[in-house]
Write a structure and sequence with these properties.
Order of helices and strands: HHHHHHHHHHHHEHEEHHEHEEHHHHHHHH
Helix content: 55-70%
Structural class: mainly alpha
Number of strands: 6
Strand content: 5-15%
Shape: globular
Radius of gyration: 29 Å
Number of helices: 24
Distance between the termini: 84 Å
Length: 455
């Protein structure tokens, strides 16, 4: 049954349900047709959303000439799982027709021995494209760029350009500009397709090209590239080397991938998860990965418990303290995470530098102090009324003020400290901050209680 256009526009969850029902019913021919009629991006989403026992079945039902296009849409972990089961000749076949940046995604993680076997099977053109794609680090403009560009000389007429384009027969995907280069391939300008269409064929390129260009250096970090696209609101941008020679171009679809990957990294990092962690990975694989961070968290909890143990005598004398002691660390943890998240976001968007860092840290300290005083007064009144003990109310109020101030200050400082130590703030920041807020919260609350109630 041919799928209609309406079917192609249905939600991915609907396709997933259809595929699961068809597999359960043994309708493999129907599933094969469905998979090969869907866009490659939707098939990749189906594979990532399927449980392990269905993934292998679905992959076997996909036509070989579609495998390469699907592979580059998959997350690294899922892609590598499929590629580890493929033979070198299958990998070589999957590479045919792919753009250069997609080739880098697919072949970048292959073991050296497998990569050598695969490249032997590629055509000379594809081998050169793969080597060009892997020449630059993945997280740079060179790793993102596509070398399939259209260049013209500044001295030719638009009529010559139009005849050249007609001879090509087709344009690379997401082409909005042609790049104007001299005989040394130095980028001197750009000319949009719209400009070519609305001007007289006798016009020379040099007279109507845009010379005010903002090319991207090949070693620019991928995050900086994404920020440039966001600020300039562009669809594509040329990539050049140190000599100003055109190497390729970056298009908006690649930048969207960077933005999504960074968002995914930040979200999972705050929970101590690997950014490429597969949602439907096998049970023991997932358990092993999470055990590491759970062990680190247990260590920090033991540190907090050791602090509490130092005040065992006062806790035995005043049971109310044991009831209230979790409030201060909890409030500090929330306040600290708010500051931490704000600073990590600012760092990711390149909004924070040496000029505004001190102001931001001071701001977070005063925000913590203001909120600390506000909620300290509220909790003091509640405890005084609830337990009829104004002294304990005053103790928890002071501890709350101290811990919220320290928490916001730590939330602002920890990302900078971790970055200086070359540790990812989004991955380790939450653990470090929680330890600080727990220790300071318990020390301030129980320490003040010991001073004012026991000594």
């Amino acid at each position: 049954m041919q799928m209609s256009n309406v079917d192609n526009l249905q939600e991915p969850s609907h396709h997933l349900r259809q595929v699961n029902e068809a597999l359960t019913s043994g309708m493999f021919v129907h599933v094969r047709k469905m998979l090969n009629d869907l866009p490659s991006s939707d098939v990749a989403h189906l594979l990532e959303s399927s449980i392990p026992k269905y993934r292998a079945v679905l992959w076997d039902l996909i036509d070989e000439d579609k495998e390469g296009d699907i592979l580059h849409y998959l997350s690294d972990e899922v892609r590598n799982a499929f590629m580890s089961q493929m033979q070198p000749h299958e990998l070589a076949a999957a590479a045919e027709g792919l753009e250069t940046d997609d080739l880098a995604d697919i072949f970048g993680d292959l073991p050296d021995s497998v990569y050598a076997e695969v490249t032997k099977l590629l055509s000379q053109r594809d081998r050169a494209r793969v080597e060009a794609a892997l020449h630059y680090p993945e997280d740079t403009a060179g790793g993102l760029m596509n070398t399939d560009t259209i260049t013209v000389r500044p001295e030719v007429s638009l009529d010559v350009v139009m005849r050249y384009l007609r001879l090509r027969g087709e344009l690379p995907d997401t082409t909005d500009n042609l790049y104007v280069v001299d005989r040394a391939d130095t980028l001197v300008g750009v000319i949009s397709l719209g400009t070519i269409l609305v001007n007289q064929p006798t016009q020379q390129v040099c007279n109507i090209m845009n010379s005010e260009i903002h090319p991207i250096k090949v070693d620019t970090n991928a995050s900086d590239v994404a920020s440039l696209f966001e600020r300039r609101d562009i669809i594509s941008a040329p990539v050049i080397n140190e000599q100003g020679q055109l190497l390729g171009r970056i298009t908006i679809d690649d930048v969207v991938d960077v933005i999504l990957e960074e968002a995914d990294h930040s979200l999972k990092g705050m929970a101590g998860l690997d950014e490429q962690e597969d949602t439907f990975a096998p049970i023991f694989t997932t358990a092993r990965r999470r055990a590491i961070w759970l062990g680190i968290n247990l260590l920090t909890a033991i540190i907090a418990a050791a602090v509490s143990n130092q005040f065992e005598n006062v806790l035995e004398q005043y049971a109310t303290l044991a009831i209230l002691m979790t409030i201060v660390p909890s409030m500090g943890g929330v306040a600290g995470i708010q500051s931490l998240t704000l600073v990590i976001r600012g760092m990711a968007q390149n909004q924070i530098n040496a000029d505004n860092r001190r102001w931001l840290i001071s701001k977070e300290l005063f925000v913590g102090l203001i909120n600390g005083v506000l909620w300290a007064l509220i909790i003091a009144a509640l405890v005084a009324i609830w337990k009829n003990d104004f002294m304990i109310g005053a103790i928890i109020a002071c501890a709350m003020t101290i811990n919220l101030s320290v928490a916001c200050l730590a939330g602002a400082l920890v990302p900078f400290a971790l970055k200086r130590l070359k540790i990812d703030p989004s991955l380790a920041g939450g653990v470090v901050l929680t330890t600080i807020t727990d220790v300071v919260g318990l020390m301030s609350f129980l320490g003040l209680a010991t001073l004012l109630l026991v000594l």
